[in-house]
Amino acid sequence: MLRLIFAPALAVIACVSAAGLVSAASLSLTWDELQLEGNKLSVDAIFARVDSLMDPYYDARGDTRARLARRLGELHLSTDMFKHRRTGLEYLDESMRLRPDLDLVKARAVTVHRMRYPSEATKTLDRAEGKFGDEPLLHGLRGRYHFIEARRVMDADGFERSRQAFERSIELNPDYVDGRYGLAAALLALERYERLAEIAPALLGTRRDVAARFLLGAVASFRGEDDEAQAWFRQALDSSPLAVRAAFEDARWFLDEHNLKPMVQEQLDPELVHAACRRVDAGYDREPDDDPDVGKALQDSTLWRAALDAFWKGRDDRPTQLFNPQQMGYWRRLVEADILFGDPESGRPGWKAPMGTALVRWGRPTSTMYESGGAGGVLQMLEVAGAKLSPSETFPSWTPLWVWTYHEQSSWFSLLFVDETRNGHWTTGWASSYAMESLKKNHPLVFFEPKPEPTFRLFVDRAVFARGPLRSTVETYVALLPTRELSALTEDGSAATASWAVFDAQNRRIDYVEVALDASFRRDHLRYALSGSVPEADAAEAASPYLLTVPAALDPGKYRIAVEVVDGGGGRQTTEFELVVPAVAEELALSDLQVLTARGSYDAGASRVPVRFVKYGEVVLPAATRDLPANASQLSVYYELYQPGLDVDGRTRLNVHYEVFRLDHRTHWVLERATSFRRQDLSKVEPVSVVFVEERTGRSSLGHVVKGTDLPIDALASGNYLLVVTVEDLVSRKSVSQTTAFRKLAPKRR
Fold first, then answer.
1. Predicted confidence band of residue 493 (pLDDT cuts 50, 70, 90)
2. CB-based burial of residue 586 (10 Å sphere; 0-12 exposed, 13-18 middle, 19+ buried)?
3. Checking DSSP bridges between strand 734-744 and strand 627-628, what pairing results, if any?
4. What is the CB neighbour count within 10 angstroms for residue 743?
5. pTM score
6. Contact assessment for residue 672 and residue 682, using Cβ atoms and an 8 Å cutoff
7. Which of 728, 636, 738 is nearest to 691 (CA)?
C-alpha cells in the first residue's frame, strides 16, 4: 500500500528575468526550463542553423568540436520532438566526452527524465558524480529528481531521499538558493516544520523571495499563527498573477453562486444587493421592496467579497483573531495542492488538478490505497482498505489506481483517480467525478481537523458602566468551570489561556487581551486572598471556577466582543456577542447590575487580589455564570447610579428597592437582562424584597454613586430568579430600574 504524505507546502511562483521577479503560472517545484540556443526560434530557423553548423562541425577537433556538438545538441532538443531529442542527446554526450560541463549534465538529466527514462536520468547523475565529485549542483539535481518522482504517488521515502540530497547541496554551498528552496519543499512534504523554520528565512531577499513568503505563510497557518500567516500570504499575493490572487482571495475556483447565495439572502442588506445589481447592469429596474437578483449581484466583485466574508464568518472558530483560521487553512491548502499537483509545463496550477481540488475542498484524506495496475482482486483490496466508492464506479484494466477515502465523524466517502497514461497525469474516475460535483454543492470547503475536547465549560457575562462625559467601560466577565482537572500543559504552566477581543461596527479589531489563567485566578484562591479563609461553599467543590474580568473603554456605538479560552491540552471554547454601548446618560440612570460571587474591602498594601477585580477600593469577584451555590446565604450585587439629584448638603436622598421574582424556565430566558417587563408575569419572593429608605451618600471621583449590596437568599429554593433594583431619587423626584437574572443551584447529590 502506498504511503502518502501531505503537508502544507510552499510553492515556487517566480522565475527570474533581467527585470526582476516574474510570477509563474504554477507554484510547483519541478525542472527549470532549459536555456537552449533554439528556444526562441521556429523549427525552420532551428534546422537552418543546424545546416549552417554541420560542415564546420565535421572539420572541427578538440574544444571547437565540443562547442559545436553542444550547439547542435541544444538546437535538436529545442524542437521538443521526441525523434530529435535522441539526436540531441548524442551530440550532448559527444560534447561531454570532449569537454565535461555541469550544464550539459543538467540538460541531459532533465531531457531523459522528461522522455520518461528515469533510470537513465539516475545513471546520468551517477556518472557525473564520478566525474565531477561532490558538487552542490549535482546534489541539487538529484534532490529535484527524487522530489519529482516522489510526488507522482506521494512517496514518503522518495521525499526523504530528496531531502537528504538537498541538505547535502547546502552543506557544500550555504548560498545555493535552489538547493535551499528544494530542501524547504521536501521538508514541507515530510512535515519537518522545525527544520523548515530554520531554512525559510534565508530565502527572503533572494530570487525565491516570493516563494519564501508563501512558505512562511503556510508554516504559520499550520502552527495556528493565523495573523502572521495572513501577513506572509498577503505579501506573496501582492506579487502574484491575477489568476492566483482570484483563487486565494475570491475562492473563484471553489465557490459559486449556489454556495454564496444563502449568504446574500440571509446576511447582506438588500439595498447593498440592489446597488450591486445596478453596478453590473445600468438598466436594472427593480424597486427597493422587490427581492434583488442575487445571481446578477454576485457578478459584482464588491458584493462577491461581502458574501465571501459572510461565508468565512460562519466558519470562524477563532472569533478573537484578526483573520479566520479556516480561511488561512484554505490558503495553506492551495499552496500545498499546487506544489504536490501543479504542472508548470502546461501552466495548470495544482488546485485545478483533480486531486488538488479534492485536497483543497476536503483536506487530507483519512487513508489512501494505490494500485500500480495489473493486480487482480481490486474490489477486495478496496473493501479491506475501508473505501466507500459508488457501486457504479468502473476500474480500467492495467491502469494505476489511486483511491482517497475520507472517514470523519458522519462523513464517509471515497474518490477514485486513474492514470491512464501511466505518466502521473491523473484524472477522476467516472463515478467519482459525479460524486465530486455533488459533494461540492453542499460541502464546498470542509475542515475535518480534530478538535480536542475542552476540560471546562465557558461562561461569559458583561456589564456597562459610564465613565466620564463621553465614554463608557464595558466589563466582560469570564468563568471557566472545569469538568475535570485542567492539565497544566501550556508553556508557562498555566491551566488555560483566555483571549478577548472587541471589534467595531466595521469589524475592525480595536482592542485585544490575552491572559494566562494560573491558579491565582481560581475562585477559591481569590476568595482566600480577600478574606483569609476558604468559604465552605468553595471548599466542598472538586474544581473551583477560574474567574477573569476584562474592561474596555468604548465610545457609544455597536460592537462585537469575542472570547476564546484554550486549555493546556488544546481544548477550545469560544463565544461572541454583539453589544450596543449607549450614549452617556444626561439624566438619572442606572448601570447594568453585576452579580458577584464575593466582595470586600481592598487594602492596596496587603491585598493579594489582582487589581482587575477592584473598583473604588472594593474587591468585586464576578459571578459570570450568575449561578450561586445551593448553600449560598446572600446575593451580592454591584451597580452605579448616574446623574442623581443632590440636596443642599451635596448628598443624595434615595429610596432603593430590591425585589426578587421567581421565574419559570421560559420567562428566565425571555427576561434575562430585560429593561422592561410585566410584573403580572412574575412571582415575587417576599422574604427577599428589601427597601432601603432615605439613603444618603456621596459620589465617586467621576461624579456617580457607587452601590454594593448583599441580599439574604438563604430562604430561596433552587431555581431561576430575576433581581429588580429600583432607585427613587427624592431630590429630582425621578426613578429608574434595572434587572438581572440569577440562578440558585440545587444541592449536589451524594
1. low
2. exposed
3. parallel
4. 17
5. 0.76
6. no
7. 728
